[in-house]
Amino acid sequence: MRNRTNSAALSAKKDERKIKNTWPTIQRIWHYLSVKKGLLFLVLSMVVVSSAAALLGPFLVGRAIDEYIVTKETDGILTLIVALVIVYILHSISIWFQNYWMIGISQDTVYRLRYDLFNHLHKLRISFFDKRKHGELMSRVTNDIENVSSTLNSSFIQIISSVLTIVGTVSVMLWLSPLLTLITLIIVPAMFFGMKWITNRTGRLFKEQQKRLGELNGYIEETISGQQIIKTFSQEERVKKIFLEKNQELKQTAYWAQTYSGFIPKLMNMLNNLSFAIVAGVGGIFVLNDMVTIGVIVVFTEYSRQFTRPLNELANQFNTLLSAVAGAERVFGIMDEEVEAKDEAHAQAIGDIQGDIVFEDVSFSYEDEETIKNISFHVPAGQTVAFVGPTGAGKTTLTNILTRFYEIESGNVRVDGIDIRSFTRESLRRKMGFVLQDSFLFQGTIRENIRYGRLDATDEEVEEAAKLANAHSFIMKTESGYDTVLRADGSGISQGQKQLLSIARAILSDPAILILDEATSSIDTITELKIQEALQRLMKDRTSIVIAHRLNTIRQADQIIVLEQGEIIEKGNHEELLEQKGFYYGLYSSQFKETS
After folding, report:
1. DSSP state of 438
2. Which DSSP letter does residue 379 get?
3. Which residues 6+ apart lie within 8 Å of 319 measured at CB?
4. Taking the chain (596 residues) in consecutive chunks of 10 residues, what is each chunk's mean pLDDT?
5. Among 361, 332, 407, which Cα is nearest to 26's?
6. Within 145-235, where are the H helices?
7. Which domains are delineated in the chain?
């Protein structure tokens, strides 16, 4: 287990190293955006209109100064005022439309991105979830995608508008006075190098911030789920200490990311004021020497602000963009994970089966560690086989191979004489029922949780399954009977009651093959008797695979297979294995002494 954990950690670090492709990530975001090309064109058209209106306003003001205020002429000034009003109204309307349409585009984009990620999660192999914290995955589905959403809502338009404003402003300034334009642009190199120095640091820090946030969310989810264990072992102080460390790491990273990004507006404001001073001072000299008019100077002072303002916005949005790209990289990192292999081309839906199972020289490795070694056994239809052995012996791995959660490296697994790879995974798993150690229940009514085994089951069939599982009596004692709403993960009812509901769900699915993984562990004696009685009904005439540490629960098994380090070391029924006086005999004797 230690090697497996280390391998998982190394794999996770390897994934983090791969997620560093900023430009490809932007291209992938564009792939989602481009679905709405028509609406994007309208948004860009409105951005062009608003940018042109923003440039035209100061130009008309300059004309008003030179042609009417300086000359004290009044003919035509009303027309110019009306033109100014129309320009600014057009500017406001175009901004409203571009924001309205862009919100729709961004929400549609994020909707499809979130759906694709959620859909992809359900295609991933079980081994992927074995080595990932659920809270960290939740952070990618929620925080990281929300980051992309907020950036598309605000930054996309501002970046395009800023670029157009810069290009338009410089073009008009060059047309009015090339010399004064060159003097105004003296500050650009200072802006460029200042921005480069800051963004080189903020990019790395924003990526680190997203990583730390994911780790913190994962730890919070883990501690909330494990509250009972934490309190049982009085580990509250230790847990709070670890949380404090992780929270401190996130605080430090976020502090420096925000601090460096905060330098950008300060730098831009300083350079903006410097630009204004240069234009005012040099422009005043030019006016005195009749090189330009007063109106041109007014236009230049306004344009110099319009020039530095989009630069400032670009700088701010660049930081936001970096944060969003960091989140998108983490999302695409999951979407690039290898999915569960597709069904073979010749695979067909499985029909009715008897449940005859054969393993022939099956081997399997997990994270480059061989966990199953040349396993062979036969379970005739309708019989029960029990897997026994120490933790890590490979018991659960064998069931994961049978369900094709894991794919074997060599050997064959047959059901009714047919290689399981000849069946589609979905149809194969539909023929199997599961009662696991940790019975997972969804938030919803008891009826809905039982019906999860067969969605088209009637209410009568649901209640009949509950009766066969010995669950009906406790269900009727709950507040609303079968319509009682369970909280997430079935909290509010006992572990034994969860198991009974899980058995009812399995009964309703009417499986040909039944898999019981520690189904009666951690259950009180009275509840265990109820569960055992329900399981006997469920196992009748079905091929059953039982994983158990409590050997008294498998004494009636037709076949018991003892595993150690991925190999079969003993095989037989209860009496035969006791007669051999081997590993099983020692294990049974030790448990018998413990209970006697």
Report:
1. S
2. E
3. 199, 202, 206, 261, 264
4. 38 41 80 84 88 80 72 73 87 89 86 86 79 73 80 77 81 79 73 69 75 81 72 76 87 80 70 73 75 75 72 70 80 82 81 90 84 91 90 86 87 92 88 80 86 88 88 87 79 79 86 80 63 77 83 82 90 89 85 55
5. 332
6. 145-176, 178-184, 188-225, 227-232
7. 24-335 (1.20.1560.10), 346-431+560-596 (3.40.50.300)
